Amino acid sequence: MSPSSTPSSSQTSLSLLDTESLSARNILTLFEEANQLDQLGKAHGHFHLPAKAPSPRVIGCLFFEASTRTRMSFQMAAYRLGHQVLTMEMNAASSLSKGETYEDTVLNIAAMKPDVLVVRYGTSVELDQLLPKLDMPVINAGSGVSAHPTQALLDAYTIHRELGSVAGKKVLIVGDIKHSRVARSNFDVLTKLGAEVAVTGPQSMIPEELPHGVKKLESIEEGLAWADVYMALRIQLERHSGNEQSSASNEGYHARFGLNQPRLKLLKKDAIIMHPGPINHGVEFSHDVVKDSRSRVLNQVSNGVLIRAALLQRALSNHLSTEGASDV
Asked: Is the same domain home to 312 and 293?
């Protein structure tokens, strides 16, 4: 099976497959759009003016990997915008259990003509090549270990809202950097916006080479007094080899790299604490860390709805412009 048509340049420009295609100006404009949606939500309970409700569009969500926050965040964003969502997850009720390939599944759903397609998947060269060719906007909801653009955007948006700007802020990312798509996308977004970025974690979980502008610290203590933002990442055991899993479980991760009460005292009083979730309590964080006044973990979740709504609205902008109903 193959795509039935070549996508127009306008459709391609409305997709978000990675963050590399975004400039700093693009990102800051997206933040402004998210702020406007937030104001509409607080005033009206949804992301449009009562007199300007858009004609409902259909958002197709294909999740070939497990998800709670990202999947429901996209669903909530779509509903708040006044649109409808069709969601398919990888389970026994899907044709994937009958041997259908991911590529054929995507092509069949695309043939149903949703207005936007949101896709999460593991490592797949076939999908990497297919998604840019579809004749509808596509938003990457996480792909393998390579990219999670919407998570990086909501993380940067959270820093922007909480600290006034990303530029000049010192962001410490702690954990399984090597296997984290969140880290890779954050490196790109945060450095574009002018942040200083450092990483630390077990040696086996830090890549041998880091992107330009990202530095490695040898210990968590070295970074705590330095950081304006402490971002923890979970250990991606599902992406580890057998040897790596054994190493991770025997490393005494929390003792060496977990954030706990003694280490909280080393963190700046005006710093913020972040985590993309899910949190493994007793590993990345001691159980009381999320209750610390500096924690912005739930703010990240709320901001994720706004960022994803802004991205969906942008992806649907061709439809909205023909209706004359765009709110931002």
From this structure: no
**Distance set, CA 179 to CA 78, 230, 233 (Å):** 30, 19, 10
Share of the chain above pLDDT 70, in %: 87
Q: For position 262, which CATH number holds?
A: 3.40.50.1370
Same domain, 153 and 294: yes
pTM of the model as a whole: 0.91
Do 315 and 278 reside in the same domain of the chain? no
Q: Which residue would you say has higher pLDDT here, 243 or 221?
A: 221
Contact predicate 320/54, CB 8 Å: yes
Looking at the structure of the chain, the number of domains it has is 2
**Angle in degrees, CA 292, 229, 141, rounded to 5:** 100
- Residue 268: inside a domain, yes or no? yes
For 124-139, the pLDDT digits (tens) are 999 999 999 999 999 9
Assess if residue 169 is contained within a domain.
yes
CA distance 89 to 66: 8
Give the chain's length. 328
Segments forming the whole domain that contains residue 179? 149-301
Q: Which two tokens stand for residue 96?
A: 């994937």
CA distance 328 to 326: 6
pLDDT for the residue numbered 240: 57
Q: Do the Cβ atoms of 158 and 303 come closer than 8 Å? A: yes
What mean pLDDT do residues 69-92 have? Answer: 91
- Cβ 232 vs Cβ 259: under 8 Å: yes
